[in-house]
Write a structure and sequence with these properties.
By secondary structure, this protein is α+β, with helices and mostly antiparallel strands. The chain has helices at about 15-30, 55-65, 90-100, and strands at about 35-40, 45, 80-85, 85-90.
Length: about 110
């Protein structure tokens, strides 16, 4: 599993980026590097191999939180959708925009 740099989850995961970045900051402040952080099956997956207990607890909280957060915009009202085998966690405005091939109004400019 690869470790992502701040801002590097990709365009489809802007809503989760702040959680990945915050976790990386917590790891840096604790003097450790996570084995990996990446989107996986509808949530942000964090490999906790070799991490101290407080970071394992934080990683679990991040994983659980992203399970209900829109991966595009960060809204806390995400609905799980499966499209062609891919799991998407999107809010209604992002679902509608995705269906219309437009940019969702709720997506923040980064």
């Amino acid at each position: 599993m690869d470790v992502r740099k701040p801002g590097s989850l990709g365009e489809f995961y802007m809503g989760w980026q702040q959680y990945a970045d915050a976790f990386l900051v917590a790891c840096k402040e604790s003097g450790v590097k996570p084995a990996g952080i990446k989107p996986s099956n509808g949530y942000l997956r964090i490999d906790c191999s070799g991490l101290p207990e407080h970071l394992v607890i934080l990683a679990d909280a991040v994983e659980r939180a992203t399970d209900g957060i829109c991966q595009f915009c960060g809204a806390t009202s995400a609905i799980e959708r499966i499209e062609q085998g891919w799991v998407w966690k999107l809010c209604k405005p992002c679902i509608n925009a995705r269906g219309q091939k437009t940019r969702p109004e709720c997506v923040l400019d980064h």
